[in-house]
Amino acid sequence: MKWIRDSFFSGWLSSAATLLILFLLWKSVPPFIDWAFLDAVWRPDSKACRAGEGACWGFIADKHRFILFGTYPYDEHWRPALSSALLVTLWVFSGFRRFWNWKLIPIWSVGLLVIAVLMWGGLFGLTYVENERWGGLILTLLLSTFGVAFAFPLSIALALGRRSSMPVIRWLCVAYIELIRGVPLISLLFMASVMLPLFLPEGVTINKLLRAQIAMILFAAAYLAEVVRGGLQAIDREQYDAAAAIGLGYWGQMGFIILPQALRIAVPPLVNTIVAFFKDTSLVLIIGLFDLLSTIKVSLNEPAWSGFGVEAYVFASLLYFVFCFAMSAYSRRLERPALERAAARAADAA
């Protein structure tokens, strides 16, 4: 009772806000439950959906394969489903501290090789499927995974280059970061799709999935570089002096002393940037790739299911929320020990 009183009724303004929120919940939650569950249509029947008053989850029941797997061959949907499960398993496996060692490299290498064999096929009796037919949830997961994996080391190099004492390297890094951050991702995807092939030698082509991935890596690297630079600037000068005093060179100082502290400080903005990048994968529609959100837009164009956009985008928002909330919750868990140590130091100082 004390916690309730202190949290929700600590003063007249807090009490009024609490009562107002409870009133709004009382007015909105029961009608939402009626619409989403009690009066909803669950079978894939568009006529029943139009005759009913509740949500039409039959749209999801009818189009869930296309939403999750895009135009991948229908009889082979088990392959992208298994690939998605394997990729999420690798994410979860990598989140445990006891697995943070060199063994992660071969584990990820084998896992990505298995995913590549499953998605492309052409081996072990699997039908070959060109990557132009990949889509849905698995495409979103692949673009975000490879985008962050390649953009993060590039961002560290850019952040270190921007703080370099060599003017040429510093200004090249500044020019790259400011140029990429100064244009929207859509323009980069458009350039990768339309302009990049014009600069390639005759007979040399790069498929549009790879072009989109390159554009997203370059885009994410510029934003992550500024986050890493902020973490580097937060390190006290005494840390640099102490690292130099024990005889470490530049790369030793950065690898063993400075970067671990800077990245720990930058965990919250890093995760925020990665979450935004995960959602930005929906922009690949501009070059003809159908990710999770794009497949929903295409599904709504079918005359039988037009007009059920609310249910479609609620389903999409739930999928995005699951992944983004998991990343946010993990980041809070990751930064909690650092916060506890900072609080302990502050208490000792006091």
User: What helical percentage do the residues reach?
Assistant: over 70%
The helix tally amounts to 15
**Mean of pLDDT:** 87
First CA to last CA: what distance?
Answer: 32 Å
Low-pLDDT runs: none
CATH architecture descriptor text? Orthogonal Bundle
By CATH, the superfamily comes out as MetI-like
Q: How many domains make up the coordinates?
A: 1
* Radius of gyration computed on alpha carbons: 25 Å
Q: In CATH's first tier, which class applies?
A: Mainly Alpha
Strand content: under 5%
Shape: globular
Got a strand count? Answer: 2
Spell out the helices and strands N to C. Answer: HHHHHHEHHHHHHHEHH
Spell out the blueprint of helices and strands.
Blueprint (H helix, E strand, L loop, with lengths): L1 H7 L3 H27 L7 H6 L6 H12 L8 H17 L9 H17 L14 E2 H26 L4 H15 L3 H15 L8 H26 L3 H9 L4 H16 L1 H14 L9 E2 H8 L9 H41 L1
Parallel strand pairs: 1-2
Features:
350 residues; mainly alpha; MetI-like fold; two-stranded parallel sheet; 2 strands; 73% helix; globular
